[in-house]
Design a protein that fits this description.
Layout (H helix, E strand, L loop, with lengths): L30 E5 L2 E4 H18 L5 H28 L6 H12 L5 H10 L4 H21 L9 H10 L5 E2 L2 E10 L6 H17 L4 H8 L10 E6 L5 H7 L11 E3 L2 E11 L2 E2 L2 H31 L2 E3 L3
Antiparallel strand pairs: 1-2, 1-9, 3-8, 4-5, 4-7, 6-7
Helix pairs in contact: 1-2, 2-5, 3-5, 6-10
Length: about 325
């Protein structure tokens, strides 16, 4: 199926977070963008970009990392400009968020934390006061209402004919992939368990498994560091790409009932037992109809949203300064 970048317009997904400049800041600030009569300050931008850069540096090590990072930073500024445009449009349309709606939004996020202290620590850690956090929720709700009024409500659901046509055009990709079910035993490698120690432990477990393979489930419960150990190492069915590459390579080249020798992934040492296999098969239109209609609707939403944003950009006076 063709790949599409899909934007889901919910409070959780459209995070138009409002950032606030600290009154006590001693940093000399400057304007890096003007959006009509509003400005974006370097301090606002840095507050947004710092955690993104930290996460980027943690995940990526490519040779062209710096180029990708510059693209990411530019994209973040563009996102902040779009947020200004959306808020200005919400102001122009006099779109408001009721107090009850804001209370509900705050409560939904609060409920993700075990205690009030954890919740407050998260807010403080992000650099917000309680009032600023509430204001950000209010602004998110106003933007969602704006999108609903000017985008969502103008999009009709896909017809049966459109969904059927999409199915026929992409029929070769309407396939349930090959899947394998397996159990495994993991001896994890981390700061407390060096690789040599883990290797010795997995070899000892493998000797037990080899001697009594019928007790694999029991050994998984006794020795595995994976949460699946409580289930006898059961991982259920999975398709290629759902596990790390080394795990896939082993599991998909084994027969049902086979038990692997110990092998290494970034998680540690594994022993795998394949318990089932399912070949790939074509999906009928009836099986994928609802999913296709939802996909087509989301594609329409994205196209309409981008068109709406483009219109706001074209009508606005936007000026950028070098970062």
């Amino acid at each position: 199926m063709k790949n599409h970048v899909l934007k889901i317009f919910t409070v959780a997904a459209i995070v138009f977070a409002v950032t606030f400049q600290s009154q006590a800041s001693q940093i000399v600030d400057r304007v890096i963008a003007r959006v009509n009569k509003e400005v974006i300050l370097l301090s606002e931008y840095n507050k947004r970009v710092e955690p993104v850069i930290n996460e980027f540096n943690r995940l990526y090590e490519e040779a062209d990392k710096e180029e990708k990072l510059e693209e990411l930073k530019t994209e973040l500024l563009n996102q902040m400009i779009d947020e200004k445009l959306l808020m200005q449009k919400a102001d122009e349309e006099k779109i408001e968020a009721a107090s009850e709606e804001v209370n509900q939004g705050v409560s939904e996020i609060r409920n993700r934390f075990d205690t009030e202290a954890d919740f407050q620590n998260e807010i403080t850690g992000q650099g917000y006061t309680r009032e600023e956090f509430r204001k950000s929720i209010e602004d998110q709700i106003r933007v969602i209402k704006l999108i609903n009024d000017f985008v969502r409500d103008k999009i009709g659901p896909p017809t049966e004919e459109e969904a059927r046509a999409y199915y026929e055009e992409n029929k070769e990709e309407m396939v349930t992939p090959e899947r394998v079910s397996a159990r495994h035993i993991l001896v994890r490698i981390d700061g407390d368990v060096p690789q040599t120690t883990a290797r010795k432990e997995i070899d000892e477990v493998y000797a037990k498994v080899k001697a009594k393979p019928e007790l694999f489930n029991q050994y998984a419960e006794e020795h595995s560091d994976c949460p699946s150990g409580a289930l006898g190492g059961d991982l259920g069915y999975f398709a290629r790409g759902e596990m790390v590459g080394e795990f896939d390579e082993i599991a998909f080249n084994m027969n049902v009932g086979d038990i692997s020798e110990p092998f290494l992934t970034r998680f540690g040492y594994h022993i795998v037992k394949v318990t089932g296999k399912q070949g790939s098969e074509n999906k009928t239109y009836a099986e994928v109809k609802d999913r296709l209609k939802n996909l087509l609707y989301q594609i329409r939403m994205e196209e309409a949203y981008e068109k709406f944003l483009t219109g706001l950009r074209e009508e606005a006076d936007i000026k950028r300064s070098p970062l």
